[in-house]
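#struct-queue
[09:14] JT: dropping the first one here, sequence first, then the C-alpha cells:
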Amino acid sequence: MEQKLSIYNTLTRTKEIFEPIHAPHVGMYVCGPTVYGDGHLGHARPAITFDILFRYLTHLGYKVRYVRNITDVGHLENDADEGEDKIAKKARLEQLEPMEVVQYYTVRYHQAMDALNVLRPSIEPHASGHIIEQIETIKEILKNGYAYESNGSVYFDVEKYNKDYNYGILSHRNIEEMLNTTRELDGQHEKHSKVDFALWKKASPEHIMRWPSPWSDGFPGWHIECSSMSIKYLGKEFDIHGGGLDLMFPHHECEIAQNTAVEKHQVVKYWMHNNMITIGGQKMSKSLGNFIALDELFSGSHQLLTQPYSPMTVRFFILQAHYRSTVDFGNEALQAAEKSLIRLLEAYSRLDKITASDTSSVNVSDIRQKCYDALNDDLNTAVVIAHLCEAGTIINSAIAGNVTLTKEDIAELKDVFDTFLFSILGIRNNLETGGNGSNEAFAKAVDLLLDIRQKAKENKDWATSDEIRNKLSDAGFEIKDGKDGAEWKLK
C-alpha cells in the first residue's frame, strides 16, 4: 500500500497531504544551532524531530536534500538588532579567536548529535562562509524597494513590505499591534520604524567579526543567512522549512518577508515547528538554574539529575510525545522512558527464543500498517511506540506460552522492529549506559549470572542459587523460572 504522509503546515494551520514540489526529490531546510555554547536538552528536540522526518521521507523512497545551517555570526544578544554578537562575546571572554569558539562548539554539537543517533544533514553551511551570498540577497531586496540604508547599516522596511504582502502571515501577528507593543531600544534611531529589522549592521570599532560590503565594514543580520543559504542550496521553491517553535517569530517571519521581497512569491511550501522542552513547567534558562547541557544529561552531573541518562533514553523520551506537544522534563519521566525502552529491546532480543508453531493464535499482520498510519498522521511517533509496545507484549506472551506464533509471524515482528524502532525512529539496538557499555553487554552479564545460578541448582547448591536470585532482585530484576531455564526482566 502506498504511504501518503500528511503533515501540519504551520503557515496555514492545517494538516495537508505532503506533495513535494519536485517529486520524488525533497528539499528540506532546518535551522541549526548558534554555536557559542554546549548543546542543551532543548537542542535535542528539533534535531531528533527533523531526523525522523528525514529518515521517514528517505524510507518512503524520496531523494532528500537536507540542509541544516550553523549560525556563527550575526546572532546578537537580543532579537532587536542590539547587543554584542554571542560568539564574539564568548571569544572575548575566553581570549580566543571567534572561529576557535565556533570550531570547538561545532565539534561538541556533532558529538552530541552522533550520540543521539541523529543523521548528518546533506549540507551543513556556516553563515560566515556565505557572506557574499548574503550581501547579494540584500542588494536584491534594496533594488526591489523593501530595504533602506541608514548610517552604514541596512534595514528591512516592514511597513512598506506589509502594504504589498502580509508581514505576520506565519505567526499571525498584526503589524499595528507590533508597533504598539514593541519597546524602543538604544540604537534604534537608525530605523524608520521600530518593527524594521537589520539585514546588515555597521560594525562598531571594537566589533571583531566584520566583513567589507557596499555599505560599511560590518556583518549580516541574523535572519538573512537562512534566506540566502536555503535558496542557494534548495532553489527558489522548496518543500519544507523546520525549526523550533521559538523561531516562528521573529526569525521565520523575517525569512518569509526576505524571500518574498527577493523572489516576489513564497519560497517555502510547508513550515513545520516542534514544540519546546520545559523543566518543571518552566522554559530552560541559565538564570533559573534549570539549563541542562547534553553532556551533563549523559553523565548525570547536573544538580537536577538523580542519575545519568543514555542518549538512546533521551531520544526515546522525546519520541514518546508528538513533536508539536510540549514535553516536560523530569527524572521520573526519563526513568519511565528508560524502562519502557529496555522492555522493547528485551522483547526484540527474545524473538529467536520463540518456538514457532504451525498456527497463530494472535494477529500480528496489521501492526506494520498501524505504524505507517501513525507516521503518516503528522509523524505521530508516540503512537508508533504504542504499537511497538503491543508487539512486545505479544512476543513476551509467546515466550510465556500464552499465545502461538508461526515462523512467518516471528519474521514479521522482527522486520517491524527493524523498520520502525531501529531504522525510522533511529533507536540503536543497544541501550547505552552512560557511555560505558551497551544493552547487549548488559544482557549477556545477566544471562551469565543466571547460567551460574542454574549450575548451582544442578549441584544442589541452594545457598548460591538463592543468593544470586536475591541480589538480582535487589538490583531491580524480576526472575521467573521456567522449564527451559530462567527468564529475567527489569521490574
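[09:21] JT: and here's the second one, same format:
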Amino acid sequence: MSGQFLFDGPEDARATLLLAHGAGAPMDSASMTAAAKALAAAGLRVARFEFAYMAERRSGTGRKPPPRADRLMPEYREAIAALAATTPLVIGGKSMGGRVASMVADEYLDAGEIAGLLCLGYPFHPPAKPDELRTAHLLELRTPALICQGTRDEFGTREEVAGYPLSPRIEFLWLEDGDHDLKPRKSVSGFSAADHLKAMAERTRGWIESRLDGA
C-alpha cells in the first residue's frame, strides 16, 4: 500500500471503516469519494487507502493491470496495521477492494480485531461471465458482513445472487436498479444516486451499531 490514507467523518465516531478501491479506479474516484462522504455524513469515520499498483499509476511509474485479488491480501493486512484504529474497525471496500477484505476478514475476526465486513458492489463474477464465480470463500465466511449491491449490477444481479450458496453471516442491502456503482436510472427507478448512497450509509450505520450492541 502507499502508506497514506484519506479520512472522512468525525474523529470521535463510534466505529472506523477501512475501505479499499476497486480494480480500475483510485481511492479518490468519484464513486469512492461519494460513498465515503455519505458514510461520513451518517456519523462514521472512514479511511480510504490505495494498493501499490494504483499508487504507481498515479505517480506515472506504472500502468500494470491489477494483481490477482489474493496477491493483494498482504497489502490489506499492512493497511490494517498502519491504520491502527482505536475504535471498533469494519474492513471492506468497493468491488475488488471489498473482495480482498473478505479474503482476510476471518483471520482478523478470530483475533478480535474487526467487527465486520462491508462490501460496496461485490464482484461475484466478471461481467458477462456468470459461471466464473468468486464466491468459494464466502460459503463459510464467519465474519458478519453487509453487501450493498445494485439490483442490475453486471458483476452480480439480484436474480443471480439469489441462487448462490452463501454464508448466513452475510446480509444484503439491495438498491433498486443500481449499477456497479450503486447508481440507478432515475427515470426507471424513481431514485437518484444520492438516494441510494444515503440508504447505503444509513443501513451501514445501523448494521454496525447492531454489531457493537451485541445483536
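[09:30] RK: nice, looked through the second one.
[09:31] RK: The chain has one domain: 5-212.
[09:31] JT: good to know. The helical segments are 30-41, 52-59, 73-83, 96-110, 158-161, 186-189, 193-212.
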